[in-house]
Give the backbone structure.
Amino acid sequence: MFWLGLLYGFQHLGISTPLFTPFLFFYLFCKSHDDGVLFNWILNQLFLGCNLYIRSRNPST
């Protein structure tokens, strides 16, 4: 459910699905090989980047 929401959010921002797909594979890789700390850090950076992108598109907020 989380990934569907994230995918919808990316499409809503105009970011195409093929750009999102590597993150899904990366998530599955980290889930099977790591404790997830690295993935959580990268995901946080991704969300920060998305927030900055949204704010740059909407200066009023």
